[in-house]
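Form 7-S
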Amino acid sequence: MKIKSIKPYEECIGDEFMKLVEFDSEITKSFIHFLSEFGEMEYFSSFTRPLFTLTSDTCFTLKGVQGLTNARLILNPDLIEESLNKFTGIIDQFQPGIEYQLCTQIIISDNTV
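Output:
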């Protein structure tokens, strides 16, 4: 999975730290498992469209839905460039075809709303 584009998030005009990330393929369960290695993950796997939120230390938060090709990226407003570089560096490490396992830091919620 590669980053196709990172654009300002149109629903948050004026907030340069809010981005919409477009990937070249759908977000998979394996990709979500991979991301869990890089921070605190909330993964709602029982939802019809499984939702995840990754919070990576103080740099960024990534929110997305399994099966979509985009996700919202919230960068630390005090460290925008550093946070963006950290995010892209993490994504560059993903290797399709590897079946990643859930990290022990993951929070899985099967609660229904």
